[in-house]
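INFO worker-7 received task bundle
INFO bundle size: 2
INFO processing item 0
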Amino acid sequence: MATVVGILDRDSWSARTDNIVVADPAAKTLTWVPRDLWCPALGDRINEAFCLAGFAGLFHALRVLGIQCDHGLVLRRSATEHAAAKISVEVPVTEPLDFLYPLAPLRPIEQGHKMISFRPPAERLENERLHQWVGARRGESPKSSDLDRITRQQVLLRALLEQPFDFKSVVAEPDLVRISAAAALAELASVESSWRMNAVADLRYQTIDGKSVLVKRDEALRPADKESPQLAVLVLALGAPSTAVETIRSLQAQDLAVEVVVVNSGGGGMAQKLARQGIDVTVLDREECLNPGAARNIGINATTAPLLAFLAADSVVNPGWARRLVFVHQAGVAATGSALENPHPHNPIAWAGHFASWHRWVTASLRGGVSYERRLFDTYGLYRDDLPFGEDREFLARLPPELRPDPSVKIRVIRLNPTRLSELISQQYLLGAQVNGIRNDPANSACSFSLWRAPLERAWRACRNVKNRAAIFLALPLIPIALAAYCLGGLAGHLAKSRDRRP
């Protein structure tokens, strides 16, 4: 049994882990894991694992690197800052140490720095001097690295263990700490100054994907991909939209083999459109407009990979998306959602399109689509193909709570929002017409209060919480225009459907 302790680099649960230490009571060891250590299965530094998938992600990343952990405790930065405010401790200094340090502890060093020094035989650490001892990374010597910082952290921790310091104060505020199990606290309470302190060894610096990272010597930087893709992505399209080209190209650019199948209903010649662009993927074209569940089931039955992800044909994914998604599922997550990002954060029109479409998705963490282990469909059945909407919600309701999407997982999908007013109006009109070509949905009526209220409420809240609040504020008067276009399109689609039904 072992417990991993992580300290986040910012005061937010979406931050990366700045410090990772594994406590093993059986071996009586504390092992530091450098935050820049490359995790091949993740395709990124290990400090991204908790940020991406919580404790499941952190445990899995450590297992990939040969470190077994059973429990975990993660602290937000303010938890350690509150505790540090009470610390005054003397540490031994064996040789002169000089570092470049930010002008303030939380400021980037690129915005300015100062020289700090520690001199033998000892230094008293308190207040900012404590932050400097723990956090300084850049020295005048090119040999300075994160491994040097770990050595200083070990010296500090041993000094604290040798004096009466109340470690319980670090976890005193429940909102600032997350614990995977009560056993984590019991294991950490057994730590003593006599324990051996070390760090993951035999490492070297290397540049991967433009990042300076630490890798284990003689280790493959990426796991060898199996012949059969582990992930199938079902691109769901209606009326063969031109945006599907960008969607598929973003999938083909992944560094992991992906089985791509396009399910297009409502005609439009999707296969021909993709062929003209030189794109060779499986396309399942249907002239009739299908309910969403029926389209999903067609794609599920046409694929073989053990993992299934659904992606709208007006979305794209970043490099590394597929590898991260597979990593999350390998960590033991049976189903996970994706959150949508606006690729034009400074454009009010793009924000208007983003929020105008917001109400048609299930929850914030599922708006970019959900991915599942295939076994869930084998066990709980396929989607209902008779529902004009809400098929995802209905399927999720069949799953037991422990198999539903984990809200701590942070997979991102980018929605191709319009950037011009004419594009916004056209997009929403066509979307309304297409959707009502399939269903008669009262929620699409211009008289529906929720249709208008929900997007405006979410946009107003985002004005207070998002960095680009000025652009979102300017988008507020554009959202009703987008919704009006959607309703007009819905009315046109409904009338066309009624005409088709006449004898």
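INFO item 0 finished
INFO processing item 1
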Amino acid sequence: MHGILAFFSGILFYYAFQYFPYVTGFLGIVSSAALFVRGKPLLVLVMAFAAAYAFLRCQPVSDIPSAQETAAIQCVFETYPKKTTHGFLRQTARIESAINQSTGDSISELTGRNVLIVAEREFALGMEYELVVTILESRQRLNPGSHVNDTPYAILVAVNNEIARNPTVYTMLQEWRYRIHTVITEHFQEDSGALLAAITIGQRSHLSERLREAFNDAGLAHILSISGTHFGLFSVFLFAIFRMVIRVLPHALLQRMTLYLTPAQAAAFLSFPFMVAYLGLSGGSIPAIRSFIMIGIFLFATLSSISEGILPLVITIRLSVVTSFKKQ
């Protein structure tokens, strides 16, 4: 109990030091001296460790250029466009180089970072572009304990050049995801298409507030997030299909295959690449990654012939993963 209190005290001292450095420093010295006098130096180490932990987890305010500065950037788009409430398109691009057009100086703060670019047109994934953009003022707030989103925004001014690049696996998955989303939105009504896109590829940006509130009031908001239910049903469906196909193979081929793998192991082996692809198509959110880890453990256990008794291990690892992700 004393160790837990010391740990939280160290975190509290760290955050309080940012606002009241002298008072917090004085209280920290007095508290440490009192613990040493009482023969509890280990608690001082716990407090110091907690302060160091809070320091590592804290994300400082980034130095983003001031508002209304025009920059020439070279970037690669990594996500497909999302429509804003005002009808514009918003895409995330990784900045490879940025130059301030007013001074001609390089903007090192943007190099290697992701920037949300707002424009009236969409950009192809994996393509390299030379753009002129206006950097918007960062609205980041660093309240203790709050989520920090320091991705800068920019408004497109002009497109100078387009350069084709070899597509990566990530850009290919994002392109397929965008195509699936386009097909859904074109062939279904607004609410129906938004719901179908949310439960299949994890795209929830087009859900209306009315639909979100309806699911929240019914206690079914978790259905809109790609999680264990989606991965579980998909894996069971794949596993059953592959196992059925393997069992109807010609007897000679099946006999030769079973010298190395059982039908269940072969089905697990064939299911795994599809689960990886679905993880990419679902957007790779935290619930999706957590569910993929659980399914991957079970498939690995099946391949390793240790499926018996794996359930307690899966439950234990699931609890630890959930706890870890909730802290982030």
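INFO item 1 finished
INFO post-check item 1: The chain has four domains: 2-57, 69-166, 171-222, 228-326.
INFO post-check item 1: The radius of gyration is 26 Å.
INFO worker-7 idle
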